[in-house]
Design brief:
The protein is 82% helix and 0% strand. By secondary structure, it is mostly helical. α1 packs antiparallel against α3 and α2 packs antiparallel against α3.
C-alpha cells in the first residue's frame, strides 16, 4: 500500500468518525406534526409525524456528509502542506 493510498484511507476514516460523532441539532419550524400527534394519536397524525422524522433524518445525513467532506479535505490539505514544508525545509 503506497503512502498516498494510506493517507487517503486514514483521512477517510477520521473524517467518517468526526462526521458521525458530531452532534446534530435539527431545528425546524414544523412542530405542528408532533404537537398534533401528541394530542391525538391517529393514523393520519402518525403518518404526518413519520414524514417529518424522515425529513429531519435527511437533514442530519446531509449535515454529516458535508461535515465529513470538509474534514476530509482539511485533513488532506494539512497533510499535503506538512509534506511540502518538510520537503522544502530539507532542500534548503
Amino acid at each position: 500500500m503506497t503512502a498516498y493510498v494510506r493517507q487517503l484511507a486514514v483521512t477517510a476514516i477520521l473524517a467518517f468518525v468526526v462526521a458521525i460523532c458530531t452532534p446534530v441539532f435539527v431545528h425546524r419550524r414544523d412542530f405542528v406534526a408532533f404537537s398534533q400527534w401528541r394530542q391525538n394519536q391517529t393514523a393520519e397524525n402518525t403518518a404526518l409525524l413519520n414524514t417529518q422524522v424522515q425529513k429531519n433524518q435527511w437533514v442530519v445525513l446531509r449535515f454529516e456528509l458535508a461535515a465529513g467532506g470538509i474534514v476530509f479535505v482539511a485533513l488532506n490539505a494539512g497533510w499535503l502542506l506538512t509534506r511540502r514544508l518538510k520537503c522544502w525545509s530539507s532542500h534548503r
